[in-house]
């Protein structure tokens, strides 16, 4: 049974019904669809467009429909296409002609624009909460190991010593921007599109302001054509998730390296790893690898949405129905990442001794020597050159940088003093990086307590 009846003489064929339906995926919008319809109907009565009793009957029946769907007692059928038609037809099934008043002054075009905004508002709140929880785990792990030193890498080569806590807090910062990108997206999408109709507004005296207030939007949309045609808010949302996923993928890559035999810095709990069906000794960091893999899917959703919109003439085109597949998949993927990551971080074990050993290579302190020369007035390029020659001198003789006498060091660094021989200690190298944002113990301790306070309210 198709609700648009009048103009049509043939039912859609089975194949076409299967091709056009969206109920298999947009049913997840039912709560928001019902919330929107309840506000719309309340307004219709207040504006004198439908009788008060009809509005009350529809509003009550909408709640019953919601309960039925909640309970799994609602019959979905692809011949009714989408969630909007299912709910409307259920209303009409119970209330007859009175139920058919619900769609006055509304089109599915502004209805879906509304539903998606309502859904994303709640979804964003959920995701931000998840991100805070994730940050809390990272901060907790940093706070448990505030003094652990490890090599920091550039080009995946040992670069300078850093605190493990500093490395983790780098991700806390990234996640913070992810949360703020989502919050920013929420601000922009929090405008109310209902009243835009199919594309041109309505001849009925709809009270858009009332619906706006009822649904807690900041404003009503200013252009009906824009309201039904654009999905930039969905693109922005998925793009924020793509960046978030990219961050988690990088963290995953760090963890994968750290639990490889070559690094051997950490051990992930068995619950987040699997074995090999063939090699009995294997313990693979699958959750991390899957996060890298799932990130590709989120990027795919972003590409799908951008491509979906790029060729559409104004205003609504049916292509837009496919937007939800990309949006939902990105939501689900982000939620899954947020569900597995905090417990994986909480249960990860450090192999502090291995990290320390890797960080004790005196070559990691080469920059400190160059900076010591700068403090003595040597121009940095000259200092860099001298220390480079010193490194070469040591390499040629198969010595570590801390295995020379002062006289030997002076062959390449004439300004060297006794003090230089003490520059190879990883602890003091870290401690001296005492600028805001640096890896110094005092600085990192401040950052840890900053984040502990900032996240204290998060459950
Ligand atoms: N299910 C549709 C979608 O998601 C709702 C809007 C349909 N509008 C239309 N004119 N066919 O886009």
Describe the structure.
The protein is mainly α and 459 residues long. The protein folds into three domains: 14-104, Fumarase C, Chain B, domain 1, CATH 1.10.275; 109-203 and 218-357, Fumarase/aspartase (Central domain) (Fumarase C, Chain A, domain 2, Up-down Bundle); 361-454, Fumarase/aspartase (C-terminal domain) (Ribonucleotide Reductase Protein R1, domain 1), CATH 1.10.40.30. The protein is built from 18 helices and six strands. It has helices spanning 14-20, 23-26, 30-46, 52-70, 83-95, 108-144, 164-189, 208-215, 224-229, 232-258, 286-310, 323-346, 352-359, 366-375, 380-396, 406-412, 426-431, 441-454; strands spanning 149-154, 157-163, 191-192, 219-220, 266-267, 349-350. The strands form three sheets. A two-stranded antiparallel sheet has the order 1-2. A two-stranded parallel sheet has the order 3-4. It is elongated. The two termini are 48 Å apart. The model has no long low-confidence stretch (mean pLDDT 96). Arginine (ARG) is lined by residues 22, 26, 82, 108-109, 112, 316, 318, 320-321.
Write the layout of secondary structure elements.
Blueprint: H1 14-20, H2 23-26, H3 30-46, H4 52-70, H5 83-95, H6 108-144, E1 149-154, E2 157-163, H7 164-189, E3 191-192, H8 208-215, E4 219-220, H9 224-229, H10 232-258, E5 266-267, H11 286-310, H12 323-346, E6 349-350, H13 352-359, H14 366-375, H15 380-396, H16 406-412, H17 426-431, H18 441-454
Parallel strand pairs: 3-4
Antiparallel strand pairs: 1-2, 5-6
Bound molecules: arginine.
Radius of gyration, whole Å: 30 Å
Query: What's the CATH first level of the largest domain?
Result: Mainly Alpha
For the sheet with most strands, the description reads:
2 strands, antiparallel
Unreliable spans are: none
Structural class category: mainly alpha
CATH topology of the largest domain: Fumarase C, Chain A, domain 2
Q: Tally of extended strands?
A: 6
Give the neighbour order of strands across the main sheet.
1-2
